[in-house]
Design a protein that fits this description.
The complex is a heterodimer of chains A (491) and B (214). Chain A has 491 residues and is α/β, with parallel strands linked by helices. Chain A has three domains: 120 residues, Orthogonal Bundle (Fumarate Reductase Iron-sulfur Protein, Chain B, domain 2); 248 residues, NagB/RpiA/CoA transferase-like (Rossmann fold), CATH 3.40.50; 64 residues, no CATH class. Chain A is built from 23 helices and ten strands. A six-stranded parallel beta sheet of chain A has the order 1-10-7-4-2-3, with helices on both faces. In chain A, strand 5 and strand 6 form a beta hairpin. In chain A, helix 3 packs across helix 12, helix 9 packs parallel to helix 10 and helix 16 crosses helix 19. Chain A is globular, with a radius of gyration of 26 Å. Chain B has 214 residues and is α/β, with parallel strands linked by helices. Chain B has one domain: Rossmann fold (3-Layer(aba) Sandwich). Chain B is 22% helix and 22% strand. In chain B, strands 1-12-7-4-2-3 form a six-stranded parallel beta sheet, with helices on both faces. A four-stranded mixed beta sheet of chain B has the order 8-5-6-9. In chain B, a hairpin with a 4-residue loop joins strand 5 and strand 6. Chain B is globular and about 70 Å long. Chain B starts with 12 loop residues before the first helix and ends with a strand. Classes of the chains: A alpha/beta (491), B alpha/beta (214). At the A-B interface, helix 2, helix 3, helix 4, strand 1 and helix 5 of A face helix 1, helix 5, strand 9 and strand 10 of B.
């Protein structure tokens, strides 16, 4: 049976409150063998598949460059594009709202649901609604928000949080999923068939039957959007299962929560993004279903359409000249799948809805680094650069990480908190500056060695250095002492 | 100002836009190099062949047939798959249905989602096919109906005219009208959420039959 530590599979909540910071969470995750097996297998599979899918296109590098530059161009003129989007969407019959932060987006969402006296809403997987903690806020008001993506359903029924953008239940294996369905589906709707097996086809069938009831009976739908087209007011959602089409087509009222960085200037720009996103995420030539819609179409789909444009820290990230490029992100998750750190610790250790390499830079950009959680994230990397190479919009994650590490050090210096790293460096500089001091220090270390052999982790911030590697044993004799003792002996 | 926040969504528009303007005051908009491929250089037969192969890769059933055979093939597919009832858009060519023995329901007046849930299949045309990716695009235009009919029944029989097949995504996008509700379909509904195993069939039609007419 899989070991599932409660600190590792946190209860849902904004920014995973109560999660330990990355270093500690990574330790817990590393101890979970089942998690590491599930993750290792999944990330390996998807990595290989993506490589093949991308190799099929001769113009892949051209597409990446075009995608990156379209995003930069949009961001450099974002105010104009946002106003253009609002005007076009409004002209097409949508109602556009602006939310400066998560609270405001939640408040607007609640007002819409209350105006329709709805007790239930159906949702297609959306990072933006997770970011603002929509489901939890609805639950407090007695409104059920039903996740309809298979993996999100697994996560929701399992009382747990997503650990990957694309396959949020990547940390769960089929046996665990079967058990969650058997235990929980009946509590919230149509129960799972009693003879359910752990065969993926049977598990998918159980989800189909369970959710069909909700699709046919719920009048308010919530979504995010992969892209929002300024020129036309069009929203775009890519998906695989058809739950997205259900949520975007069947309800009377649709609410889409859209980060302000999702804008693309023209409909024609989709010719680039409809190529780079599917191949980078599910590693397919094309995802099974994409819905593109503009406002309200009479007789087809929801007749009341709300769009909530969400800032929630994005303008903070936008103001960072180096970090701004993180807003190019199209949430494909390619960087997660190639990251050696993510592969070993999983998504929960990052303590945010945005895990992996992109999460490591995006969270500090959105919130700053004054919080210990965000301050730990720029260190959640070996700077190997695999993420940059895989990124379809060419976000130079390692460069942003390095800049953020400097910011973390500055933040600590400014806050006047004792900084173990800075202190150690100052002592080292003083020691190395004089050879007598160095020799004394080495003799002391040698005498401490019998004790130090039992020390595996250093305290404080230095713990970051030893948290994932063992401290090497200190030799009884330094090289200098050995040289003094044996000089000439070998000649 | 009146109070209803739903009808008068003023929110924080000015605040967000001011923050955006402050953040990008030094940003420079780069040029976008569009050096990617827009044309495969294939002739009609080559496009049909590639499209059929790529749709087939998604484990959809694909047949390339002569336009004159269409009604016979539609009747046979429905019979072979034991489709007892099928919904069709109101403007579907009756000539397509001459050999169909299943119960045919026209979507006029519009069926409710619960009605559609009782129907086995749906027959439609399409707007554009993309050869490179094996994608069919529906735009709610002639022979396609509204979005719900191709979503709820479990089998979608979709007719793609060879003339509507283009090579690449850029060619397809240039043919589409953003003002229409668009659905891009690449194979049957699928998920890879359980240990990254691709499983056909979750919420959308679990069976996709594509008839390419030449």
């Amino acid at each position: 049976m899989a070991k599932t530590d409660s600190t590792l599979h946190p209860r849902p909540g904004v920014a995973f409150l109560g999660m330990p910071a990355f270093t500690e969470a990574a330790h817990i995750a590393l101890g979970d063998d089942q998690l590491r097996r599930n993750l290792g297998r999944a990330t390996r599979t998807i990595r290989d598949k993506r490589k093949r899918s991308v190799a099929e296109l001769d113009d892949w590098q051209d597409l990446r460059t075009a995608a990156a530059m379209i995003k930069d161009r949009t961001l450099a003129d974002l105010d104009r594009h946002l106003e253009q989007f609002e005007a076009a969407a409004t002209a097409a019959g949508a109602i556009v709202h602006w939310a400066a932060d998560a609270d405001e987006a939640v408040r607007i969402s609640l007002d819409i649901v209350r105006a329709h006296q709805a007790s239930d809403v159906i949702k297609v997987k959306s990072m933006a609604t997770q970011e603002i903690g929509l489901n939890e806020a609805f639950a407090e008001e007695g409104i059920h928000a039903w996740e309809t993506d298979l993996a999100e359903l697994i996560v929701q029924l399992g009382g747990d949080t997503p650990s990957h953008f694309l396959v949020p239940a990547i940390h769960r294996n089929r046996e665990e999923i079967k058990q969650i369905f058997l235990d929980r589906m009946g509590e919230v709707g149509r129960p799972a068939p009693e003879d359910l097996t752990d065969e993926p086809r049977r598990l998918a069938e159980a989800a189909r039957l369970h959710l069909r009831e909700k699709f046919l009976n719920t009048s308010v739908g919530f979504s995010g959007a992969n892209f929002a087209i300024a020129e036309t007011g069009t929203l775009v959602v890519l998906e695989s299962e058809g739950n997205g089409r259900m949520c975007l087509t069947l309800p009377d009222v649709l609410v889409s929560v859209v980060g302000i960085e999702k804008i693309l200037p023209t409909f024609a720009d989709l010719e680039v993004f409809m190529q780079v996103l599917p191949r980078s995420s599910t590693a397919e030539r094309m995802n099974p279903y994409t819905t593109m819609w503009t406002g309200v179409t009479e007789g087809d789909g929801p007749q009341e359409m709300h769009i909530i444009l969400l800032d929630n820290g994005r303008t903070r990230a936008l103001a960072d000249n180096t970090g701004r490029q993180a807003l190019r992100c199209i949430r494909c998750s390619a960087c997660l799948n190639v990251c050696p750190v993510y592969e070993r610790v999983g998504g929960h250790a990052y303590g945010s809805v945005y895990p992996g390499p992109i999460g490591a830079i995006l969270n500090p950009l959105l919130h700053g680094v004054s919080d210990e959680h965000d301050a730990a994230l720029p260190y959640a990397s070996s700077l190997c650069g695999a993420c940059y190479k895989a990124c379809p919009v060419k976000i130079d994650i390692p460069t942003v990480l390095i800049e953020q590490r400097a910011e973390v050090v500055d933040e600590r210096a400014d806050s006047g908190r004792p900084n173990a790293e800075a202190l150690a460096m100052r002592i080292a500089a003083w020691t190395f500056a004089d050879h007598r001091r160095l020799e004394r220090a080495q003799r002391l270390a040698g005498r401490a060695a019998p004790i130090a052999r039992h020390v595996r982790r250093l305290p404080g911030l230095l713990g970051g250095w030893t948290s994932s590697r063992d401290l090497p044993p200190i030799p009884d004799e330094s090289f200098h002492q050995w040289w003094e003792r044996t000089r000439g002996a070998g000649r | 100002m009146t109070g209803d926040p739903i009808l008068r969504p003023m929110g924080s528009k000015e605040q967000v836009l001011a923050a955006v303007r402050g953040a990008i005051k030094d940003a420079v908009a780069p040029q976008v190099p569009r050096t990617y491929t827009s044309d495969l250089g294939l002739d009609r037969a080559g496009l049909v062949e590639l499209f059929a192969e790529r749709v087939g890769d998604y484990r959809a059933e694909v047949q390339v047939i002569d336009r004159a055979e269409l009604s016979r093939v539609i009747g046979k597919v429905l019979a072979d798959r034991r489709i007892r009832s099928a919904v069709v858009p109101d403007d579907l060519d009756p000539g397509w249905l001459t050999t169909v023995t299943s119960r045919v329901v026209r979507d006029a007046p519009y069926l409710t989602p619960k009605d559609l849930d009782q129907i086995d299949g749906v027959i439609t045309g399409s707007a554009v096919g993309i050869a490179l990716t094996g994608t069919i695009v529906l735009d709610g235009g002639p022979l396609q109906g509204r979005r719900a009919i191709t979503l709820i029944p479990d089998t979608h029989l979709c007719v793609v005219a060879a003339d509507d097949i283009v090579g690449t995504v850029p060619e397809a996008v240039s043919r589409l009208d953003a003002g229409r509700p668009l659905t891009w379909i690449s194979g049957p509904s699928a998920t890879s959420d359980i240990e990254l195993d691709r499983v056909e069939g979750v919420h959308g039609p679990r069976n996709l039959v594509v008839l390419i007419t030449t």
